[in-house]
Amino acid sequence: MKRETILVIGANGQIGTALLPRLQEAFGFNHVIAADLRHPKQEQGRFELLDATKIDELATLVQRNRVTQIYHLAAVLSAKGETDPLWAWNLNMQTLLNVLEVSRQQGVKKLFAPSSIAVFGEQAPKLETPQTTALDPATVYGISKVAAENWSLYYHKRYGLDIRSLRYPGVISYQSMPGGGTTDYAVAIFHEAVQGNSYDCFLAADTLLPMIYMDDALRATLELMEAPADQISVRTSYNLAGMSFTPAELTASIQTYFPHFITNYKPDFRQGIADSWPKTIDDSVARQDWGWKPAYNLPRMTEEMISQLSAIYQPLVQTH
Ligand code: SER
Over the stretch 165-185, which tens digit does the pLDDT of each residue have? Predict the structure, then answer.
């Protein structure tokens, strides 16, 4: 088997942090290069500093290491993007175009560049949002992801680039604190609950949103990347579903472990973003094309988050 060399851009982020060990396991520890703007708190293997907005830096890194696959995970998320729209647009688009162009020039064999439920806006059906529908996003993050999906399709059709993508729902994980997303309440809430605190939620109690547990998100990513190219009918980005729930339902699920846990609802500007997104997702095309099936529902995800975060916080709590 020919050895692959995998480059993960934005490796310190929520998905990168959890994906790295999986890729190291699959391709060999020394065959995965993590890259980000800053050194991670804990290095997990090969690491390179990279500003992916600079095409020359990226080109040199790919060439020097003979990179064969790229996971492009660097992006400014929805809520953070709204604080500085042009900065978010420039960063999201420049990094994507650089990755596409360097991949084309250097013959990178496979590329993963995720999209998001944020591509959907007012005109898309909110329930069982279909794979193909109107895309009129309300955020600059969503606009950049719609553009990214179309650029990906363009590079695939025009240059034959094997680029694959998923429209991630809100990703829930214990490995790192996510930054700047509208769905991130569903991560922050667990950190407060296991420390015995209450949680001030920036969304209303009945805000139904599509979510996925990290384990499912990683498995979907790796299964999509492993699928034979002729099974990939979607070169913009696949709809992907895990579960959907509201803050009130999540709170009730956490209360089965911590009966006194309380959520206070203080919706802010992020409510408008959440209201523009789907409530549930139809991912039947992913299921048909490459056999996608989620494994985590709300109770199973809650159990796993609480057990993992309790193990992380327990020693800290005891030393105080
Ligand atoms: N989790 C992302 C966000 O909230 C959606 O892709 O911005």
Answer: 999 999 999 998 878 899 999
Residue 318 has pLDDT above 80, yes or no: no
Phi–psi pair at 213, nearest 5 degrees: -80, 145
Residues 302 and 233 in one domain: no
Structure tokens at 64: 């020097």
Domain with 145, as residue range(s), is 6-169+213-239
Output the six-digit token pair for 266. Answer: 């203080």
Residue 286 to residue 110: CA distance in whole angstroms: 18
**Residue 320 reports pLDDT greater than 60:** no
Atom of ligand 1 nearest to the CA of 182: 4
Q: Which ligand 1 atom is nearest residue 78's CA?
A: 7
Ligand 1 near 253 CB (within 6 A): no
Q: Which of 141, 155, 213, 238 is an active site residue?
A: 141
State both tokens at 198.
Answer: 């209450």
